[in-house]
């Protein structure tokens, strides 16, 4: 029995606890305090004293403020729309007097203070209904810009008011004494009327100014005035008085007005600074911005807060960017930008004040009217600024000019200086700007002709004096002459004078009047062009043309019995590798160093010139003894061999030198230089670091090279170019994996020539492109035939070398596509071999080309890996699937072991997902060790020498037969 009673008591305690929790959730967290309403108070701000319950529900239960006896009651208020989740505001008022008090409760629709920047509060009806805890509901007063309710408080009464809000916020709630409120409204109405009137007059005035002056800045300024007028009309509520617009419509118009105000400011800035004339890119940005603002104005119809937020951010952006642009142009001397600085500073100040207002930092009641007045002052400043352009031109601006005035203005516009000689009085007048530029004292160049001529360069005086005498004596003609005038610091400036005589009544020349133009820069440019035409731009040495000119002069002196010239042609060995390894900038520095070093060995009568990229020429006339000439050549060779230091690195270079000596015969300058070049090429053939003197037999050798080039051009037509194939073995099963296609030339006289004997000639003559395409097409055709004969279970591949001219041609992609379209091969089995040094000539371009080649279905192999300067950092950026290791890494070193770097190369290739082909495998030991290192393929004389396609077919057939058995 006791257990049953204990259970009932437990359930009862739980129920009471639930009711307490529910009550705590419903009741406010603090007691409501009544606000006293004094009789003499004109206005009480209730904004901070109101308890807000946002999204509370369709009903609210509230405890009233304690009355005079301290009693607290509970009241429940329902929403006007059942089921509607409403927001509520609660406050209490207390009348401590013994008189009845009438007050107006005012909640303005829109208040700029605290409205926000992003999705701002653009105004709406704030109060849907007011319910008092006692007495009658307050009566609503008619108003176009606020919710106004008349509240009556009995003597000694304490009344709690529950306000159902129309939205979720109430920016301001004030309790006004009726007469004070009317006086406040009337005072602001007067101010607003004055501001609207001034804004309207400014808009009308600027519009009239636009009609009078058709320049673009006037309609731009007028558009700002009309936009401000529209904005103020909406802000002051005049818009609602003219048009019957509901409260929600104000949001649309207010957002649209702000967007239009930003757009007109942007139009004015663009037109005033003439961005459409001088700054095309800025004009594009402004046009895009303007189109966006027009779209924002249209967006206001659908989402007014979002449109207003974008417009306000745009206003700030226009102010800041506009100020930066104005200052930039002002520092560059643009007059319009300078005149606009005060106006834009006022705009920035207005934007700062407006920003502080909408964010709530400025909350005074006078802030909003002051901002409205500031807009009108801004329009006034804009009007003053554009008026300077409206009335600054006078007769010039209106176009009323005589021909005399036009000529005078043209002279001013051209910037020419006036030169005037009064012949009878022998007085010369010049523009003061000339003396100022020359650094002379005022009137230093004025006076007699003798005084003027003394200021000229000595080489120009006689010619100028003769021109003056001729014009005065003949009483006709013109002077068009260039001369030099001496400045105060001793320097000379070039001037061009154009003048003509003016005749008096007696037909004599009484004046000589003309203009002076500074042509110093033109003359300097001409001298630079003349210098650059015969000198090298990098080293400043004579170029090939000036070298030949001086050589011709030296030959003429040699024929007259003076010292005979000796011609040297110096070509630096492997200089292209220096550019590839260290960069073009280092290569240029090396050439400059070489030029300075070689110059030290020459005397004033000798000549050093840069004939080509890494080729220098010397004309030696200071030495005639053969022994001294040979010693000079040896000194040149030692100079070039001296290492050049760059930072912590040293560069060692050598050169091949060709020498030809003038023998007093009928040789021309071109022949003498050609002899030295032939000797230099002969030295390169047996060099490097070699000096050769020209011998007549060398010219025959050069003729053989020309004949070989001529034969090579017809070799493809005669089908003399053949392909041979060297096997590439798979090391894991000792089977043929593919072939490398090698080119041979069956010359009708010299027999079979290897690539090193004719490919350099093909590169120089451009024939390498045709030969490369021929090799690629024949290799693909042969590969397709082998694959069809063997099946595709384990397709073999064929590798073809690509030259630098092929890789750098834009038609390479089309050539590969055509070859693959004509020949049916398994994708990826036609491999193009590209050397490491070739891709490093232009890594970025090579990467793009190789990626497109890979997309076409061709394989890619990096040939001679490890012999270049450094492609490790670029290796992962190239789409290679195979690395071919140079034979230098496969051969044993001096201690009988293979280079350690071979293991690193194989590991690196595998980490990058590539296969490895090792070249130079010549013994079984090589194959075993390469397989142990992880190489997939090997190529070398161990597996076969280069053979014909028919021999390859038989080799593949034997391999297939062995696989079947």
Automatic annotation (TrEMBL):
Residues 563-696 form the GGDEF domain. NCBIfam families: GGDEF, sensory_box. This is EAL domain-containing protein. The keyword Transmembrane helix applies. Keywords: Membrane, Transmembrane, Transmembrane helix. Residues 479-531 form the PAC domain. Residues 705-960 form the EAL domain. PANTHER family: BIOFILM ARCHITECTURE MAINTENANCE PROTEIN MBAA, DIGUANYLATE CYCLASE DGCP. The lineage of its organism: Bacteria, Pseudomonadati, Pseudomonadota, Alphaproteobacteria, Hyphomicrobiales.
């Amino acid at each position: 029995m006791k257990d049953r009673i204990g259970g009932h008591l437990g359930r009862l305690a739980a129920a009471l606890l639930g009711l307490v929790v529910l009550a705590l959730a419903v009741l406010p967290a603090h007691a409501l305090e009544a606000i006293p309403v004094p009789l003499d108070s004109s206005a009480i701000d209730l904004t901070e004293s109101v308890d807000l319950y946002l999204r509370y529900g369709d009903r609210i239960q509230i405890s009233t403020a304690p009355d005079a006896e301290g009693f607290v009651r509970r009241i429940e208020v329902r929403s006007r729309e059942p089921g509607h989740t409403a927001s509520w505001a609660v406050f209490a008022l207390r009348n401590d007097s013994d008189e009845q008090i009438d007050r107006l409760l005012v909640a303005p629709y829109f208040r700029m203070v605290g409205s926000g920047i992003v999705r701002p509060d653009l105004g709406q009806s704030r109060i849907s209904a007011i319910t008092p805890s006692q007495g009658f509901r307050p009566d609503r007063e008619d108003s176009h810009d606020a919710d106004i309710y008349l509240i009556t408080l009995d003597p000694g009464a304490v009344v709690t008011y529950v306000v159902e809000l129309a939205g979720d916020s109430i920016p301001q709630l004030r309790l006004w004494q009726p007469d004070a409120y009317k006086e406040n409204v009337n005072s602001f109405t007067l101010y607003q009327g004055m501001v609207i009137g001034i804004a309207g007059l400014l808009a009308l005035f600027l519009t009239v100014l636009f009609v009078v002056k058709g320049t673009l800045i006037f309609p731009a300024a007028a558009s700002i005035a009309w936009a401000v007028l529209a904005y103020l009309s909406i802000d002051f509520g005049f818009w609602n008085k003219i048009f019957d617009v509901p409260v929600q419509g104000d949001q649309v118009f207010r957002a649209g007005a702000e967007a239009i105000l930003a757009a007109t400011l942007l139009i004015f800035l663009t037109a005033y600074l003439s961005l459409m004339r001088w700054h095309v890119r800025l004009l594009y940005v402004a046009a895009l911005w303007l189109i966006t603002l027009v779209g924002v104005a249209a967006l206001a119809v659908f989402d007014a807060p979002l449109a207003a937020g974008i417009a306000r951010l745009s206003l700030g952006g226009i102010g800041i960017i506009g100020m930066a642009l104005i200052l930039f142009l002002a520092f560059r001397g643009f007059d319009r930008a300078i005149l606009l600085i005060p106006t834009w500073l006022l705009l920035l100040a207005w934007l700062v004040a407006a920003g502080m207002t909408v964010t709530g930092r400025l909350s005074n009641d006078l802030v909003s009217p002051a901002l409205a007045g500031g807009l009108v002052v801004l329009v006034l400043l804009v009007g003053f600024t554009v008026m300077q352009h409206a009335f600054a031109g006078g007769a010039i601006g209106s176009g009323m000019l005589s021909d005399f005035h036009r000529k005078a203005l043209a002279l001013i516009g051209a910037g020419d200086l006036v030169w005037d000689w009064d012949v009878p009085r022998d007085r010369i007048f010049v523009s003061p700007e000339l003396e100022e530029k020359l650094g002379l004292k005022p009137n230093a160049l004025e006076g007699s002709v003798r005084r003027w001529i003394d200021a000229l360069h000595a080489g120009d005086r006689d010619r100028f004096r003769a021109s003056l005498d001729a014009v005065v004596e003949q009483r006709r003609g013109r002077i068009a002459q260039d001369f030099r005038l001496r400045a105060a610091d001793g320097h000379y400036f070039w001037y061009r004078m154009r003048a003509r005589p003016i005749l008096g009544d007696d037909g004599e020349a009484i004046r000589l009047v003309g203009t002076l133009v500074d042509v110093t820069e033109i003359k300097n440019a001409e001298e630079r062009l003349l210098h650059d035409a015969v000198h090298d731009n990098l080293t400043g040495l004579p170029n090939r043309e000036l070298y030949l000119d001086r050589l011709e002069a030296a030959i003429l002196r040699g024929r007259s019995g003076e010292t005979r010239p000796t011609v040297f042609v110096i070509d630096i060995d492997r200089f292209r590798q220096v550019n590839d390894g260290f960069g073009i900038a280092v290569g240029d520095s090396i050439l400059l160093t070489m030029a300075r070093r070689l110059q030290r060995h020459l005397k004033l009568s000798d000549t050093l010139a840069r004939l080509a990229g890494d080729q220098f020429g010397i004309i030696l006339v200071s030495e005639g003894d053969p022994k001294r000439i040979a010693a000079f050549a040896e000194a040149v060779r030692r100079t070039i061999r001296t290492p050049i230091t760059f930072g912590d690195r040293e560069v060692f270079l050598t050169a091949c030198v060709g020498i030809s000596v003038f023998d007093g015969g009928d040789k021309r300058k071109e022949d003498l230089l050609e002899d030295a070049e032939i000797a230099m090429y002969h030295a390169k053939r047996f060099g490097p670091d070699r000096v050769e003197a020209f011998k007549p037999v060398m010219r025959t050798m050069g003729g053989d090279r020309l004949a070989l080039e001529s034969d090579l051009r017809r070799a493809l037509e005669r089908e003399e170019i053949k392909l041979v194939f060297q096997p590439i073995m798979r090391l894991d099963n000792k089977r043929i994996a593919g072939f490398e296609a090698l080119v041979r030339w069956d010359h009708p006289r010299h027999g079979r020539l290897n690539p090193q004997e004719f490919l350099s000639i093909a590169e120089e003559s451009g024939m390498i492109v045709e030969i490369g395409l021929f090799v690629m097409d024949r290799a693909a055709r042969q590969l397709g035939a082998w694959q069809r004969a063997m099946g595709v279970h384990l397709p073999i591949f064929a590798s073809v070398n690509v030259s630098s001219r092929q890789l750098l041609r834009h038609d390479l992609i089309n050539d590969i596509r055509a070859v693959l379209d004509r020949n049916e091969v398994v994708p990826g089995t036609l491999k193009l071999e590209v050397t490491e040094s070739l891709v490093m000539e232009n890594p970025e371009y090579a990467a793009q080309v190789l990626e497109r080649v890979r997309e076409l279905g061709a394989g890619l192999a990096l040939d001679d890996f490890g012999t270049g300067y450094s492609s490790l950092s670029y290796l992962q950026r190239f789409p290679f699937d195979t690395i071919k290791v140079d034979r230098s890494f496969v051969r044993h070193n001096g201690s009988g072991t293979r280079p350690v770097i071979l293991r690193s190369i194989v590991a690196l290739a595998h980490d990058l997902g590539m296969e490895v082909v090792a070249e130079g495998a010549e013994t079984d030991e090589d194959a075993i060790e390469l397989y142990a290192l992880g190489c997939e393929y090997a190529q070398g004389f161990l597996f076969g020498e280069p053979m014909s396609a028919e021999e390859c077919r038989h080799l593949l057939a034997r391999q297939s037969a062995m696989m079947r058995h």
